[in-house]
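Quick one: C-alpha cells for this chain, please?
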Amino acid sequence: RPRGGSSANNNTPLRPPSELLHTAGGDTESSPGMIRGPSIGVLLCLVATRVTAFSDPPAVEAPSCTDSTSVSLTAVWPGAPPDADIVYLGLFLSGHRGPFALQTVPRGVGESVEAVIVDLLPNTTYTVRWRAHPRDTGRNMGWDWQPYEPPFSCQTQPLRPGAPSGLHRAGNLSETAVTVRWTAAPATTVHSIGVRLVAPTTPIDHRSGFAYESVAPTASWATVQRLEPGQSYEVVVVAFSPRLDVDVQSDPYVVRTAAAGHSVGAVRYTELARVSEFTNDVDFLDNHDSATPAALAVLMATWAKQVNVSDDCIADLAAACQRGHGQDCIDCVHGLSTTPTICGTADVLKYNTNFFCGEGWPSFSTSTPMALYCVENLAAPLPQGPTNAKGWAEYVSCDAQEAGATNHPPNPVCICWCSWDRVAVSNMPASVYNKYCTRGSDGKVVCTCADSLGNGSRFLRPNSTSALYVSKSSVMLPYIYYTTPADAYPNSTEIGANFGTPKNGSCGESNALGDGGCTWKRAPFARVLYYADLLDNGWRAQLPRDTPTNSSGSRHNIAALAAAADRLSRYISPRCCGC
C-alpha cells in the first residue's frame, strides 16, 4: 500500500470502461468525469496554500517544515507578525543575495501561515526563509517588506521504490481536461491513474478521496476529461511492482484546468518577466511594466550593466534629491555641486543615478532581481487607440520619467505610452504617432491616448480601460534606437511584447479573477534570476547594436536568458503558465 494512502484496489472502485479517458496506448478507458466538490472559483495555484486559525494561540514556534513528499514541502510560520497582510517564503541558494523562487501567501490577523510548495525535486534539501509585509502601508507591494526571518532547511522525500515518477503536464491548456505524462519504474506495470479535486478545505496531505481509473499497461500518458473549469486537481499514477508484490502510488502532482472562457480568448495566461526598479528586492507587478522573456532580453541590452548598486551611494543621493521624480530627479543629481565620492567612477555614478531615478527600465545590475511570473487576465474591451493587440488595453508606460514629479517609486504612476516605447520599441508608423504625440515649447514630447484624462494629457482617466485591464504593445527586432518616427522600419519583426498591469485592476492575493471587478491576477509562485545567472549562460553585456540587416546580438542574449531560466530546473521542476 502506498505511503499515506490506499492502493488503487482498496479505494474508489474502478468504473466500467467509458469514453472519458484517453491514453497513449490508444485504449479508451473510464475516468472520474465530473468530479464534484466545493467550488474554489479561479484558483491560480501552482503552489497550494492554507491558513489555519487558532482560538487559543499556542506558544510561538519557530518556522519549520511539517510535511514533505518527493515533490513538495509544507512550510509553516506559527509566529507570523499579526500586522502583516501578506507574507512570502523564498527558496535560497548559497551565493545568491535573494531567493531563486518565492511564493506569496495572504493571511489574517492572529493566524498561523502555512504554504505547500510543489514542483520540487526528490531527495533535495532546500533553504527556506519567510518574510512579512506590514498591513496597509499605503505603498506598492514591492516596498516595505520586513527583513527575512532566519533560514531553516527542509528536505523532500526520496522517490518511493517502484513508484512512477516525473509526473508533468503535457499538451495545451484546457477548461475541462488535463494531460499528464510519467515515467514508469523499471520492472513495474502502470495500471491506474487517480484524480481528486483540491479545495481550500481539503488538506493537501490527505491521500484518500481519489477516483481511480484504468490505463493501458504500456501507457506513458493519459488525458483526463470532463473536469470542471478553473479548478485544481491532484493526480497520482499507480503501478504494480512484482519485486515488492504490491501496488505503488506516485506522490500527488497538482494540475489545474483553465478558467471558463479561456477557449474563446476571454481569459488569458501569460508568462511575464519583470526587472525591479529603484530596489534590489522583487517589486511585483502593480502599476509596473513587464515583458515576455524574449522581449525583456532585447530591451535589457540597452541598460544591463555589470555594476553593483552601492547602498552608500544611494543614501548620499537621497540626502540631496527626491527619488523617482524622473527627469527632475536626474537634473538634481547632475546639478549637485559636490559629486558623492562614495559613488566611485563616472560609470558607477551614472548607473546608480539611473537606478536612483528610475531612468531606463529595465536597468539590470549584479544585484537586481528578475522575476518570472504567470498572470491570468480577462480580455479587455476593444481598445480605441493605436494597438494591434485585440483583447488587450492600449499600452501604458509605468514608473516612467515622463510622469515627472507625479511619479513616486513606492506608488508608481502609469501614463499613456511614452514616445520611446512607441518609436524605438514598437516601431509605430509616423502617420499614427503624429496623431497622439506632440512636442511642446519646452522641447519635451507629450503623448496622449484614447484613455487620456483630457485633451493634451498623458495621464489616464481613473476608470478607463487602460487603467483597469492589462495592456500590451509589440517589441520589435531589430532593436534600433530610433528617436524619430518613420513611415516604415526596415525588416521590423515582432519578437515579443511589453505589458502594463494597472494596480486598480489587480485581484491581489485573496480574490479570484473577476471578484469585485478585478481583471488580472498574479500566480503566487514566481521564479527569480540574477545577472550572474545570465552571465553564466553566455549573456553578453557589451554587444554591437542591431542594424536593419543584423540582430544577431539581440538574438544571442534572448537565447542566454532562456538558458538561464531553463537551468532553474536544476532546483525546481518547470511548469507552463496556467498549468
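Residues 46 and 525 are 6 Å apart (CA to CA).
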